[in-house]
Amino acid sequence: GNTCIDSSNTFVISDPLELILTLSSIVSISCHDSTDGALSATAVGGTPPLIYSWNTVPGQQIFGQPAGIYTATVTDGNGCSSNGTITLSNPAPITFTYSVSDYNGYNVACYGDANATISVNASGGNGINASTYSWDNGMATDSIYGLSAGTYVVLVNDLNNCIGTDTITVNQPNALLLATSAIPSLCNNSNDGVAFVNVSYG
Prior knowledge:
- This protein is an all-beta fold.
- It is 0% helix and 49% strand.
- It is built from no helices and 15 strands.
């Protein structure tokens, strides 16, 4: 017998395009420990429709997020999926270093004086705006003078208008206390009287 082959019908089976997921930060966190970051996921390939989720929360974009590591997943119409991770970074906090005048261990020279000085330097954040130093006593510079004992609060903004603050204490020595006593003279115009003065710290 004869073997006959019909080759008039040809079928091509093709794979869908590879499902590729790309993650991006569309809004960076503005200030240290803020919750205003935003992330976006975009995929190409696969078979429509594409369904996105972030850490199991549905959606292609998420907003109002704190710093952390996030995982996104995209699933196509055939149930194929791809996932990836992205880190939403936390800006550094604003920190202060400072120096205070020193008079033998105290910040003012004598009890009740107003001769202390404070100099501060802020760093971190998104870069410090050096023109924004302000103090609770009304001064607006990184160094303040003529201070009496007490606490002083400094504020500064970074380039994103994030606010940093610190409290600095100015101390003083104790007040001097004078205690006096006397032994009177025995006779008029005699020189045998005695006076005593005792100096102590309060």
